[in-house]
Amino acid sequence: MNFESPIYVKREQASYLFSRGILATRLEVIGLKFQQAYELSNKIYLKIKKLHKNTISKSKLDEFVYNSIKQEYSKELAEEYLMIEKLRDTSIPLWIVIAGAIGVGKSTLSRKIASDFGIRHVIGTDIVRDILRKTLSKDIAPQLHTPSYLAYKTLRPIYNTRYDEVIIGYENHSKYVNIGIEALLNRAAMENISIIIEGEHLLPSFFDKETIKISNLIYITISLEDEKVHLENLSSQYSREKDELIKHFKNIRKIHDFLVHETKIRKLPVIESNDKEAVLANVRKYIIEKTKKVIF
């Protein structure tokens, strides 16, 4: 049996093993389908093999990839690849905030984006909420100790006469969680690390206007306009609380619509998630456009 001899990519700090699969995954980030990405990755591998060396510098590899993308597709895509690689190497952190109601697909999306851009820290706001529940008792913060879509049940009667009680309850529930979100962002800034925070509690109104304007903070809200698909997501993505979520779907949709509305009136991006491949591509594209302003 013949085994391919390994090729190592040399960097300043350390070397790593070249992988066609990993390169293909990185090529997907610029919009190539996996089959296209893997075929191009294999062509690049064959070019490297012709050098008859078991080591290639990272800059030389990037040159091969750039020229191959440019030849097979376009100069614009080739430059996007280099920009993303530069982002991976930069010391400038990215803070990506992905908001969305329960069941719109933001958790899966966040993990994929983290892999695409080499971000190691992905934190869901549910985790922050659970930690705060240990700190703030039910007597102090009753809204925090109920699901967001049922937090209205903790409201005093005065709230019920003028405003939608589900939305008021959701806001009161979320404001406590945002204490922890603010601490997370401050920590990320202090340690100069990239982070993705995702969850239903990330109302843009809770973010300071100056914070939202920070060039390396990227805020996105995920929308799912098709209610049928949203309901199917709740049935397929959740097991233990599935029946409860379906029972209160109307309240979850109210929160969805409110979050989307609050995002739009602040002229922040809302990305539709009816098509899973399209939403990933659109989020990637938006992050790339934003990071160009950070790096260059």
In short:
This protein has 296 residues and is an alpha/beta fold. It has helices at 20-28, 34-49, 58-72, 75-89, 106-117, 125-135, 165-191, 209-212, 227-237, 242-247, 249-265, 276-295, and strands spanning 8-10, 15-17, 55-57, 95-99, 122-124, 195-199, 217-223, 270-272. Helix 1 crosses helix 2 (34-49).
N-to-C SSE string, H for helix and E for strand: EEHHEHHEHEHHEHEHHHEH
Q: Point out poorly predicted stretches.
A: none
Helix share of residues? 55-70%
CATH class of the largest domain: Alpha Beta
- Structurally, the number of domains stands at 2
Q: How far do the termini sit from each other?
A: 49 Å
Write up what this structure looks like.
By secondary structure, this protein is an alpha/beta fold. It has two domains: 8-89; 95-295, Rossmann fold, CATH 3.40.50.300. The chain is built from twelve helices and eight strands. The chain has helices at 20-28, 34-49, 58-72, 75-89, 106-117, 125-135, 165-191, 209-212, 227-237, 242-247, 249-265, 276-295, and strands spanning 8-10, 15-17, 55-57, 95-99, 122-124, 195-199, 217-223, 270-272. A five-stranded parallel beta sheet has the order 5-6-4-7-8, sandwiched between helices. Strands 2-1-3 form a three-stranded mixed beta sheet. A hairpin with a 4-residue loop joins strand 1 and strand 2. The termini are far apart.
Could you give the topology of this structure?
Blueprint: E1 8-10, E2 15-17, H1 20-28, H2 34-49, E3 55-57, H3 58-72, H4 75-89, E4 95-99, H5 106-117, E5 122-124, H6 125-135, H7 165-191, E6 195-199, H8 209-212, E7 217-223, H9 227-237, H10 242-247, H11 249-265, E8 270-272, H12 276-295
Parallel strand pairs: 1-3, 4-6, 4-7, 5-6, 7-8
Antiparallel strand pairs: 1-2
InterPro entries: P-loop_NTPase
Protein name: 2-phosphoglycerate kinase
Organism: Candidatus Heimdallarchaeum endolithica
